[in-house]
């Protein structure tokens, strides 16, 4: 079917964050122009990009040439490299047209007040950033009650959030959620299960680029805990991060160490971690770092999963979420696959933008 | 948060089909009134119900008391039991208000012209009925381009269709889909794999109520083929049912037999089915009746699945769909769980109605 240009609706996008996901998203927006025109009768117009170095604004949208120049500019900091207005000079109510979709690909909660102001100014919000969703409950309530999407906050582009939403819309009752939502901790759990020493597993994961430069950021479990909290809040539990039971894979006493010292002293945990792994994998159970949402509570930590269960059966490089509900009791609903990565996360954000555009049309 | 009634949007529903799914949906609509008011600011108003016995119309919506009376009326035929206007007397353009959602829970393609006319009259359409989606490509194109949802045509309420949609919206490229989408044929495949004779498996499945009264309706594979075709069309393949490669588990020569004669003579297939099952399960492979969508083609039939693959790893009482795409290549995206049943299908239809209401608001 041919579409004349008059059929195509332009949708303004204001992008927060121009790191790996933000740049991948920008490239994908450009690459999908033809697809969006024919399939969705939509043109995504990037009217603003902000990162910690400043904001670029273009009321009529940036051309693909301008976007490509920003993508190609290699700045010393890896940032946008503009010295224009800081984000705090932008007021959603006066600078963003109603109907603009603000996309947050940062990893900071300082964006939350901006996002809330955007929602109040009749803008939509798409979050890849977990922190505003796992932060103040008042923020969460604003996003949950309005035109917002946050699919990629749990399991990257895996359709986890949309599934929770549909289950709730359809009057189903979610009784239990369990999931393996951290590729890094999944890898380390599989290594422990195979008898690898904890310290070796941590250093190996770091060398492969699976962890942050400071692996304690992964080993502490907070990222997985935020995902569990977002799911728990969607189910209706009024919880905060302080309510989430988090099993850290290292003791708080090691927080003061330098990264190098930690990577050396982590071997002091080898014996206790091996004992714990052995205890949890008795009888062929599989070691997983799992999130659990049930009975008004949520938590993350090591578990021994039944090898024939959905959680126990997946490869550890997969993320998985398993829902037991009124309608999915004996045969729980499971969603699994690659649950991390900048390109796939950007694709999930793009899916959210198109879906939200449809609703806001 | 309290909501005043002025916040609540009423959405007219016109229901085609009042069998198991249609009745379950009606009960769920009533049960979800409070949920929809508080969560979705929505009231679903059933303005019409039609089945092959006639049509009940109520321009201002039926009260829950009226709906309950229709649900309780036990008619000889199991049908609506009204002798009012036939469906053909209802013209969507003159009898349905724009914005009405027409819900098809029948299993006939005679509803298709009505649905197409409803789409043209600015109504929405939700299909649990596969036949219009797997019928004339011109019908498919009308639904695919407009305000329609058909989540429950493939895998009941499992979020299969919405996932295809999101993958396409996000510019991902779907390279391969495989799935086990028939509980009945999954059961028979698991029995064959366990060494049960084909005839015994068929009679057992029928006695358990897993098959239609005439089990050939399941064994022929057409229902699974329609699901594969719907997925293939969504991926962009311009195919019709005659293009789908369908492996029937009985030869066409047995079509003329009575049901009783078939249930007796089916044992003549025992030896050939055992041979085929043995050949496909060499080396520990798992027997599945699978749908495959790939390279512009689609088909359904028996396959031997790698036991560590997602298709091979599930319990046969589960439905599963596995997507291999540009972004999900090494770790394919899989969705599994209960993929059949009237209550869960009705819940999926209700989810579609709420989602479509959001878009049409």
Q: What's the short version?
A:
2 copies of one chain form a homodimer. Chain A is of the alpha/beta class. Chain A is built from 16 helices and 12 strands.
Pick out its properties:
alpha/beta, disordered N terminus, globular, 361 residues, 6-stranded mixed sheet, Dihydrodipicolinate Reductase, domain 2, 2 domains
Give the SSE string of chain A: EHHEEHHEHEHHEHEHHHHEHHEEHEEH
Shape of chain A: globular
CATH architecture of the largest domain in chain A: 3-Layer(aba) Sandwich
Radius of gyration of chain A: 21 Å
- Report the β-strand fraction of chain A as a percent range: 15-25%
Based on DSSP secondary structure assignment, what is the total number of beta strands of chain A? Answer: 12
How would a textbook summarize the main sheet of chain A? Answer: 6 strands, mixed
CATH topology descriptor of the largest domain in chain A:
Rossmann fold
Name the chain pair whose interface involves the most residues. Answer: A-B, 51 and 51 residues
Provide the helix percentage of chain A. Answer: 40-55%
- Individual helix count of chain A: 16
Structural category of chain A: alpha/beta
Question: How many domain units of chain A?
Answer: 2
State mean pLDDT of chain A (0 to 100 scale).
Answer: 93
Taking pLDDT < 50 over at least 5 consecutive residues as the criterion, the unreliable ranges of chain A are: 1-5
* Ends distance of chain A: 21 Å
The CATH superfamily of the largest domain in chain A is known as NAD(P)-binding Rossmann-like Domain
Query: What is the oligomeric state here?
Result: homodimer
């Amino acid at each position: 079917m041919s579409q004349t240009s008059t059929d195509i609706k332009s949708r303004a996008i204001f992008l927060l964050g121009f790191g790996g996901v933000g740049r991948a998203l920008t490239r994908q927006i450009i690459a999908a122009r033809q697809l969006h025109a024919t399939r969705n009768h939509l043109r995504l117009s990037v009217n603003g990009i902000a990162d910690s170095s400043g904001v670029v604004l273009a009321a009529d949208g940036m051309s693909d040439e301008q976007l490509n120049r920003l993508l190609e500019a290699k700045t010393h900091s890896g940032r946008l490299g503009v010295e224009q207005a800081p984000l705090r000079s932008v007021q959603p109510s006066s600078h963003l047209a109603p109907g603009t979709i603000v996309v947050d690909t940062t990893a900071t909660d300082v964006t939350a007040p901006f996002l809330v102001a955007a929602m109040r100014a009749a803008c939509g919000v798409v979050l890849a950033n977990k922190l505003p969703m796992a932060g103040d409950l008042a923020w969460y309530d604003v996003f949950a009650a309005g035109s917002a999407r946050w699919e990629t906050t749990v399991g990257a582009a895996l359709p986890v959030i949309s599934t929770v939403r549909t289950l709730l819309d359809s009057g189903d009752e979610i009784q239990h959620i369990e999931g393996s939502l951290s590729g890094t901790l999944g890898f380390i759990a599989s290594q422990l299960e195979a008898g690898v020493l904890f310290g070796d597993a941590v250093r190996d994961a770091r060398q492969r680029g699976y962890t942050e430069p400071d692996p304690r950021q992964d080993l502490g479990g907070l990222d997985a805990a935020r995902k569990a909290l977002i799911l728990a809040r969607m189910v209706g539990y009024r919880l905060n991060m302080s309510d989430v039971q988090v099993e850290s894979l290292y003791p708080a006493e090691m927080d003061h160490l330098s990264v190098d010292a930690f990577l050396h002293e982590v071997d002091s945990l080898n014996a206790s971690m091996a004992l714990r792994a052995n205890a949890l994998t008795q009888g062929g159970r599989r070691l997983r770092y799992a999130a659990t949402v049930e009975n008004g509570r949520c938590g993350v930590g090591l578990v021994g999963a039944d090898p024939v269960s959905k959680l126990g059966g997946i490869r550890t490089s997969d993320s998985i979420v398993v829902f037991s509900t009124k309608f999915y009791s004996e045969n729980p609903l499971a969603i699994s696959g690659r649950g991390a990565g900048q390109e796939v996360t950007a694709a999930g954000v793009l899916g959210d933008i198109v879906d939200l555009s449809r609703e806001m049309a």
